[in-house]
Structures are given as structure tokens and as C-alpha cells.
Amino acid sequence: MSTNCCAVVAALTLAVTSPLAVAAVYKCTDASGKTTYQAQPCPEASAGAPLKVDAQPAPKPAGPARPAPPARLTPNPGWDVMTLDGEVAPPAAPAPALESRTATAPERVQAPLLRLSFDLLSTDGRRLPWTNAGPKGGNPQAGQVRDGAMNVEEGGPVALDATGREAYTFGGNGSHLVWMPRGLGGPQQELTLPARLPRMSWASTIAWDTRAGVLAFASGRGDGYFYRYDTRRHAWLGAVPLRNRNLVALASDAANGSFFGITDQLELVSYDAQGQEQRMVPLAGVLPPHARTMAGSLDATLHLTVRDGVAAIVKISRAKVTHIWTYAMASGIAQLTYKD
């Protein structure tokens, strides 16, 4: 008798066209009693009865591929963007909020990329040292900052020289220029426009380039002029139409004798030394939406400082600084650098 006992597991062979087929498996036991299962007959196999195993579906012959069902579009009230292959896809991610000419400046305070120092005026005519990151010394002087609005409480916008001994402002609701040769609180003298220049009306913003000795101010509400006055010779230099721009803030850049203004539409406009408009940059897409509202607000005013291509836009409300935005003209980057 053989030392290798074998049990044969066989399956009936079915036609290829049959949906089911039975596989053949051989159960073999060697002399040591170890059992194995294999596809080939055991050595010295005997004609044992076959063992039937679970039937598996035979693979169907490959046929032509069926077309995929059409894509189903699901309505979405938030967006509805379809790609070229018929699939619905979300819109592209928005541009970074900070470093973009068309991006909105964030509402959180950031350290300024570019530093700028300037002075604000107090309600009693003192100079208050500030930077675009906040007040020097840490005291914001809340309730003491002159906002420059044309009202009785604050006294209207003022241009003061470096020594504080000479100043200019407006009288008659912006209908004439006033010279104060001994500074704020001293005697006043009304300066009469020559007949060759257009009549002043609603003058509301003023800047003094003390290095060049040129005073500039804007009048009108949409149909005004950009006036220039020589503070050394006390002579009028001229007036240029503002092209329907209503300036709410004005600053001088003594480095090159130019001037910059902000309109009630939140546009930054540059002027050369003769008052001719050079460039306009819309800031509505750079500063927060509420900045445009405040540009024409009666409850808040804007103070502008410009130096070497950097602008500090200061919001003053109820005699205190509430916001400072810093705008770099070369890069178009705007930052909120101070908030109270």
C-alpha cells in the first residue's frame, strides 16, 4: 500500500456558456499526515470520490463598453460653476487678503511694513507726535485731537508751521482764507482773493509745504479748485480745477514739492507743485468698505500724511484717533496698523 494517501476533489466541467462553473481541488495527505490542497492530482492518486467546492460565477466575455451616465448637476445657491467636462466645481480660492492691490485691508492690526512719523494737532493747537503704529509715548490723547472738520467746536482745519508761530485756516464756512501770524489764538487777518482767481466756496482741507513756502487748499463740493498761496511773499500763485473731485484730506510731500489728496470716493490723487493732477489710485478695493462711508461722513474726518511713497490715512472721530491705515504706493499693499 502506498505511503501517500490521496483524496481527489474533482468538479464536473461545465460548458463555457454556462453561467456557473465548478472548480477541481485535490486534497492530498503525505506519510507524515500533513494535508495540502492543490490543483494537480496527488502523487499515486487513487480514484477517490471527488469533493465538490463552492461554485463561482464564470467571467463573462468582454463586450463593448457601456457609455457612462451623464453627469448630474446639483443646484447650489452659493455658487454655480461648471467645468468643461460637465462637473460642478467650487469657485477658485480668493486672492490673499493682504498683499494685493485689489484686496481689502484686514480688520486686525498688523505691525507696519513701513514706518512713518508725523504730528497731529490738539484742539488747543499743540503738536501731538504720532507714528503709523500709534502715539509716541503711548498716550493717544483721546478727546484732544483736532479732527479738522469745519465746525465751531473744533475750529476747522488748520495748517501750522514747524515752530507753531504761524498758522492758516478758513473763515466764513470755507469762503475765505485766514492768516494767523502769531499762531492759533492770536490775531487773524482775512486774505482776499484777486479778481483773476475763482471765488472760494466750501474750502475744507489744507496743507502747507513749509520747505517750499507753498500753502495748498481745496474748495468746492464737486466743482471746486486747487488753490496755491506763497506764504513767503504773501502772493497768490493760482487755482486749478479739481475735475469734479471732492477732496476730504490733503497732504504735502516736501521731498519733491508734490501734494496728495483723498476724495470722498476714497481715491488717492497726486498733484505736482503747480496743482496739476498727476495720478489717481482708487482705494475702495484696498481699504475696508466702511472707509468709503467715513470719507464723506460728518461724524469722522480723515487726516493724510505722505512721505517717500508711503501714506498714513488717519481716521479721527470725536476728537480721538480710531484707525490708521498704511498704504505703500509702490506695492499697493494696505495694512491696518492702529486701532483704538
TrEMBL record:
Pro residues bias: start-end ranges: 58-72
A Pfam family this chain is assigned to: DUF4124
Region of interest (Disordered), ranges: 48-78
UniProt keyword annotations, A-Z: Signal
Record has Signal as a keyword: yes
Limits of the DUF4124 domain: 13-65
Name of this protein: DUF4124 domain-containing protein
The keyword tRNA processing is annotated on this UniProt entry: no
InterPro entries: DUF4124 (IPR025392)
Signal sequence, start to end: 1-23
